[in-house]
Amino acid sequence: MPFVERVFSGVQPTGNLHLGNYLGAIVNFVKMQETHNCIYCVVDMHAITQGIDVWGGPAELTRNTREVTAAFIAAGIDPKKHIVFNQSQVSGHAELAWIFNCVARMGWLGRMTQFKEKAGKDRENASVGLFDYPVLMAADILLYRATHVPVGEDQKQHLELSRDIAQKFNNDFGDSIRAQGANDGLFFPLPEPLITGPATRVMSLRDGTKKMSKSDASDNSRINLTDDADTIAQKIRKAKTDPEPLPSEEKGLEARPEADNLVGIFAALSGRAKADVLREFGGGQFSSFKNALAELCVTKLAPIAGEMKRLVADPGHIDSILNDGSDRARALADETMKLSKDIVGFIYRR
Ligand code: TYM
């Protein structure tokens, strides 16, 4: 069956959204709207997989869900032309995840590096949900039979698992799928990750070997989408660098993770290639490059922060966007669930 191209991606409402989320994912979400039907999801069910002290409790989850929605819209996602919703409003995510739980193998999940990182040494104490996290992610994508998934580099392994689950489902239930009329025996597409642009892995501003992350104890390690202009400028000025001037060619960034990261951020924010940025700033001191980068960050991010602030001040409006998006998502999801139930052999009221 040739699949209709459709984009799906999700962001967790856990703490501050940062420049990594923006450049690694959200910028590409905005771009994909021009060519595809897109579904963007605030994955509140994923958010509760870690301890309540990590995600902050019910009031914080509600606040963060609205804030991520506001960020989507402030960045340029159109919730009327496309679908923006929160995961827990569409029960198909949990239902399909259960079927996939019975398709995925323990060994596959045991290899997930993100689980190992997040669970740390005390694996016995990690939630079952944290272990199962990538299965729910596969359900998110395949519930809409999405073909393309824009994400940052850190999600690559999870996308590979989604493809393995889709393939095993198609194999296990091939006869049943063919009986439904799909002669090629394919019910789920194998979703393709879209990991594009010069900032697919934005690193910490304090340590160029560590990913920029919501959970880093130091706020100076990241630029939050809600930071004001002064804070952004200060964080860039304080960002770790090395004593050498900037190289004139990309090769010179090898083994210089901090310089590479800052040049990548500049390139992504300005829509230029790294080589082009180095042609302009190569040979110069970091201080003048940092001034230009701070100005660029403020120009690009301050309007988003301002719009987010305006949007979150009206929670009723945000909730109505999420409700409307959920209704439209549910209509698509219900279709996949009915077909999936037929394929598996579950009886349901027709
Ligand atoms: P989350 O909420 O951790 O991150 C959201 C998106 O931001 C990207 N990202 C980064 N990109 C570049 N540099 C960084 N430092 C950086 N940090 C985060 C992530 O790659 C992601 O694209 N599991 C997902 C959410 C999810 C999902 C899905 C995504 C749930 N279901 C289905 C795609 C499809 C996650 O934890 O994202």
Task: Please describe the topology of this protein.
Layout: E1 6-11, H1 19-32, E2 37-42, H2 44-47, H3 52-55, H4 58-75, E3 83-86, H5 92-101, H6 106-110, H7 113-119, H8 128-142, E4 148-150, H9 156-172, H10 174-179, E5 192-194, H11 229-238, H12 257-270, H13 274-281, H14 286-312, H15 315-344
Parallel strand pairs: 1-2, 2-3, 4-5
Helix pairs in contact: 4-14, 5-8, 5-15, 8-9, 11-14, 12-13, 12-14
The structure holds tryptophanyl-5'AMP.
Protein model, in words:
It is globular, with a radius of gyration of 21 Å. The model has no long low-confidence stretch (mean pLDDT 96). It has helices at residues 19-32, 44-47, 52-55, 58-75, 92-101, 106-110, 113-119, 128-142, 156-172, 174-179, 229-238, 257-270, 274-281, 286-312, 315-344; strands at 6-11, 37-42, 83-86, 148-150, 192-194. The chain has 15 helices and five strands. The chain is mostly helical. The chain folds into two domains: 7-200 and 314-344, 3-Layer(aba) Sandwich (Rossmann fold), CATH 3.40.50.620; 219-310, Tyrosyl-Transfer RNA Synthetase, CATH 1.10.240.10. The two termini are 24 Å apart. The structure holds tryptophanyl-5'AMP (TYM). The site of tryptophanyl-5'AMP has 25 residues, from strand 1, helix 1 and helix 8.
Compute the number of helices: 15
What is the name of the CATH class of the largest domain?
Answer: Alpha Beta
Number of structural units classed as domains: 2
List the quaternary state of the chains.
Answer: single chain
Biggest sheet features: 3 strands, parallel
CATH architecture of the largest domain: 3-Layer(aba) Sandwich
Distinct compounds present: tryptophanyl-5'AMP
Average of per-residue pLDDT values = 96
User: How much strand content do the residues show?
Assistant: 5-15%
Indicate the structural class.
Answer: mainly alpha
Uncertain ranges: none
